[in-house]
Amino acid sequence: MNVTVFNPAQLQVLDMMSFVDSPEALAELKKAISDYFAKQAQKEIDRLWENGELNEEKVEKFYQLHERTPYK
């Protein structure tokens, strides 16, 4: 049998879940977590832009990118 080992962050979130007592509270928690990761992603994008690793030309290339998973 496989045993799942949680890291400290996972344990903290699991502990906080005991306070979620309604669908509305769960929705609020999901939004807060989603907002946090969106903010982290934006910080990284800003860092890449400031360092020159990301620029308008590279962003334009994303629009032309067609990566698809090959099906067998």
| Number of E-state strands | 0
C-alpha Rg (nearest Å): 19 Å
- In sequence order, what are the helices and strands, one letter per element? HHH
Helicity, as a percent range = 55-70%
SS strand fraction: under 5%
Shape: extended
Major sheet attributes: none
What is the typical, i.e. mean, pLDDT? 92
Low-confidence stretches: none
CA-CA gap between termini: 32 Å
The number of helical runs is: 3
Structural class by helix and strand composition: mainly alpha
Question: What labels would you give this structure?
Answer:
72 residues, mainly alpha, extended
Overview of the structural elements:
The chain is mostly helical and 72 residues long. The protein has a domain at 20-64. The chain is 65% helix and 0% strand. The chain is extended. The mean pLDDT is 92.
